[in-house]
C-alpha cells in the first residue's frame, strides 16, 4: 500500500515536470518564431543598413505629415495695379494673366482637391479687362463649381455699379482695403490714384454691397503711418462683417531686398506698436488681428501662373503650376501651415446665405 502510494506520487511529480518542460519549450519556440519573422521581414532586412534606416525614418515622418487640404485658396490672378502702396508685398513683377479657360481648369482642379473658398486677389483683381475676367471667374466658381464661398479683396477704385448688377449675386464677400480714414495718410502710403479719393470709393462700394447683397469686409495694414490712428468711429459706421488688421509684413524680393520693386522698411511696426493699435480697438467685435507670425505661412497663395508661393524663407518661392503637376503635388511645396490657418480663424462662416445679414 505504501509502495503503491509512493509510485503514484512519483508518477504525479513526473507528469508535472513533463508538462512544465513542455510549456517552457513552447514559450521558447514562440519567441524564436516571432524573432525569426521580424528578422526576415523586408523592413528589418532593409533597416540593417544605416542608409536604409534613415530612409525609413524619413518615409515614416513624411507619412505622418498629412497633405494639407486646400479648403481656402487665394488666387492672385494679376500683379498689375493702379495704386502704389509703399508696403505692398505682391508687386507687378510680371504682367502675365492666364487665359480664362486655363484659369477655370485650375479652379476645377482645386475644387476636386477640396477647395471650399476661393479669394481673388492681386495686384488689383479688377484691373484686367475692366473686371470682366474676374466677374466670369466669380460666376464660374459659384454657378458651375458651386463653391460655398467666393470672395474678392480689392482696393475698390476700379469697381463700377454695372459689375455688381451682373456679378454681385455670385459673390459672397467683398473686402476693400483701407489703411486710414485720413486722405493725407492714404496719399503718404500710396493708396490712391491721382486726385481720386480712396475714401469716396470705399463708401460708394460699401453702399453697393448693401444694395446688391454682398457681405462687406475691410482689410487694414498697420504701418508706421497709421499706427497711432483711432479708427473706431469709422469702423462702427461701416459695420463690416470682418475687419482684418494686418501687421505690415516684409517679404524679400517683393518689398525688401535688392531685386524688389518696393522698399517697405520705413513702414514696419514692431509687435508692441501693433499690440497698442489692437488694444485701442479692442471693443470692435469684428476685428480679426493678424501679426506677422500668424500671417506668414497660414495662407495658400497661388500666383498668376497658379503656382503655390512658399513664404517660409521670408521670400515667395514658387512651386510648379497646379496646371502642370496637379494640386496634390504642387501643394507639397506651398509651405502652408494648416494648424496656423485654423488658429488664426481661417475657417469661419463664409457663405453669405449662412451669415443672416440684415441687408
Ligand atoms: C496685395 S493686396 C491685393 C488686393 C488689392 N489690390 C488690395 O490692395 O486690396 C491684398 C491684401 O494684402 C494687403 N497687403 C499688401 N501689402 C502688405 C504688407 N506688406 N503686409 C500686410 N498686408 C499687406 C493689402 O492691404 C490687401 O488687403
Ligand atoms: S492696391 Fe496697394 S496693396 Fe493692393 S496690389 Fe495695389 S499696390 Fe499692392
TrEMBL record:
Tell me one GO biological process term. positive regulation of immune response
UniProt superkingdom: Eukaryota
- InterPro entries named among the record's database cross-references: Aldolase_TIM, Elp3/MiaA/NifB-like_rSAM, RSAD2, RSAD2/Viperin_antiviral, rSAM, rSAM_sf
| SUPFAM superfamilies listed in its UniProt record | Radical SAM enzymes
Pfam families named among the record's database cross-references: Radical_SAM (PF04055)
Question: What cofactors does this protein use?
Answer: [4Fe-4S] cluster
Localization, per the record, is: Endoplasmic reticulum membrane
How does this protein lie in the membrane?
Peripheral membrane protein
For molecular function, the Gene Ontology terms on record are: 4 iron, 4 sulfur cluster binding; catalytic activity; metal ion binding
Q: What are the Radical SAM core domain coordinates in residue numbering?
A: 67-287
Keyword annotations: 4Fe-4S, Antiviral defense, Endoplasmic reticulum, Immunity, Innate immunity, Iron, Iron-sulfur, Membrane, Metal-binding, S-adenosyl-L-methionine
Where would you say this protein principally sits, based on its record? endoplasmic reticulum
Instruction: Name the CDD domains for this protein.
Output: Radical_SAM
Q: Which GO CC terms are listed, alphabetically?
A: endoplasmic reticulum membrane; lipid droplet; mitochondrion
Q: What family, per the record?
A: Belongs to the radical SAM superfamily. RSAD2 family.
Please identify the protein, giving its name as recorded. S-adenosylmethionine-dependent nucleotide dehydratase RSAD2
Amino acid at each position: 500500500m505504501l509502495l503503491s502510494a509512493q509510485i503514484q506520487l512519483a508518477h504525479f511529480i513526473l507528469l508535472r515536470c513533463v508538462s512544465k518542460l513542455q510549456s517552457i519549450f513552447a514559450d521558447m519556440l514562440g519567441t524564436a518564431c516571432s524573432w525569426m519573422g521580424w528578422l526576415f521581414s523586408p523592413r528589418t532586412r532593409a533597416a540593417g543598413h544605416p542608409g536604409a534606416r534613415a530612409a525609413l525614418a524619413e518615409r515614416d515622418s513624411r507619412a505622418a505629415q498629412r497633405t494639407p487640404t486646400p479648403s481656402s485658396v487665394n488666387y492672385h490672378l494679376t500683379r498689375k495695379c493702379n495704386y502704389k502702396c509703399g508696403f505692398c508685398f505682391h508687386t507687378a513683377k510680371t504682367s502675365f494673366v492666364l487665359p480664362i479657360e486655363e484659369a477655370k481648369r485650375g479652379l476645377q482642379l482645386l475644387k476636386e482637391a477640396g477647395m471650399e473658398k476661393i479669394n481673388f486677389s492681386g495686384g488689383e483683381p479688377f484691373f484686367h479687362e475692366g473686371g470682366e475676367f474676374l466677374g466670369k471667374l466669380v460666376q464660374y466658381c459659384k454657378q458651375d463649381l458651386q463653391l460655398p464661398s467666393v470672395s474678392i479683396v480689392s482696393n475698390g477704385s476700379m469697381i463700377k455699379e454695372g459689375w455688381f448688377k451682373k456679378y454681385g449675386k455670385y459673390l459672397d464677400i467683398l473686402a476693400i482695403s483701407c489703411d486710414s480714414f485720413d486722405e493725407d495718410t492714404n496719399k503718404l502710403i500710396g493708396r490712391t490714384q491721382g486726385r481720386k479719393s480712396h475714401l469716396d470709393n470705399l463708401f460708394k462700394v460699401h453702399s453697393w454691397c448693401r444694395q446688391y447683397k454682398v457681405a462687406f469686409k475691410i482689410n487694414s495694414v498697420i504701418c508706421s503711418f497709421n499706427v497711432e490712428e483711432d479708427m473706431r468711429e469709422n469702423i462702427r459706421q461701416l459695420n463690416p462683417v470682418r475687419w482684418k488688421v494686418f501687421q505690415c509684413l516684409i517679404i524679400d524680393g517683393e518689398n525688401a531686398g535688392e531685386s524688389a520693386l518696393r522698399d517697405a522698411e520705413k513702414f514696419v511696426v514692431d509687435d508692441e506698436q501693433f499690440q497698442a493699435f489692437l488694444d485701442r480697438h479692442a471693443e470692435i467685435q469684428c476685428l480679426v488681428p493678424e501679426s506677422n507670425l500668424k500671417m506668414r505661412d497660414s495662407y495658400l497663395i497661388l500666383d498668376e501662373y497658379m503656382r503655390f508661393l512658399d513664404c517660409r524663407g521670408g521670400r515667395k518661392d514658387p512651386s510648379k503650376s497646379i496646371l502642370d503637376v496637379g494640386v496634390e503635388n504642387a501643394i507639397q511645396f506651398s509651405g502652408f501651415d494648416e494648424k496656423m490657418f485654423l488658429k488664426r480663424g481661417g475657417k469661419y462662416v463664409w457663405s453669405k446665405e449662412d451669415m443672416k445679414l440684415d441687408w
